[in-house]
Amino acid sequence: MTIKEIYEAFDKIGCLSFTTVDEHGNPESRIAHLRAYDEHGIYFMTMFTKDFYKQMKHNGKLAICGLNAKTTVEHDDEGMPIFEGGYAIRMTGTVHEISMDEIKAKHNPMFTMCIKDWEKYPAMVVFCITKGYGDVFDYDFEQITRDNKLQRIYFAFGGEQENYKGLKIDIEKCISCGVCKNKCSFLAIDEHDRVYSVNKYRCDECGDCYINCPAKAISY
Question: Which among 2, 131, 156, 169 is least buried, having the fewest CB atoms inside 10 angstroms?
């Protein structure tokens, strides 16, 4: 995914959860939104009077997460939850404060809101996520629109590496019994010539393959 595509996936959601760590190592979250993007990264704002600002200046890291789907959970006749299809997206990134002079010098209409917000609230400051990695968790658990429950899209920019998720099968220990493939409701086990592997784009890390493997060939 490009920076533009990452930004648009987040921006389609709007309000997002931004998490940082305080001076005691405790995570703190708040709701905010992104403002703009360019070739250097993805931008957002806060005020220098907030703990959010202090925490980012202290360690330069944050995590963002959002959900593009109905947020209330309905239940079926057996009391089991029904999740409407949609996607979640998360990103871990490194941030740097950007001066308002730098923002103005861009002469980019996308940053107009940043400038107007700063003029109205002079304590506002701009941060840029200069590098980050994450994934889009595109799900359809009821399999209404496709035959698999999950499709993960991994991304990274600014020199970061994609951080793939999913369990792993040790081919040296695997006895090719096929139990993992039969147990996986996410259709995340691939098989070629009796060699089994976990598809990192479909794996939910649910643990069914790990629990049921008779050869203990699966790790997480």
Answer: 2
- 163, part of any domain: no
Sign of CA dihedral 146, 148, 152, 153: negative
Distance CA 189, CA 34 (A): 36
Question: How many domains does the structure of the chain reveal?
Answer: 2
d(CA 124, CA 114): 9
* pTM to 2 decimal places: 0.92
Tens of pLDDT along the chain (220 residues) come to 999 999 999 999 999 999 999 999 999 999 999 999 999 999 999 999 999 999 999 999 999 999 999 998 889 999 999 888 999 999 999 999 999 999 999 999 999 999 999 999 999 999 999 999 999 999 999 999 999 999 999 999 999 999 999 999 999 999 999 999 999 999 999 999 999 999 999 999 999 999 999 999 999 9
Determine, yes or no, domain membership for 162: no
Q: Which domain holds residue 16?
A: 3-157
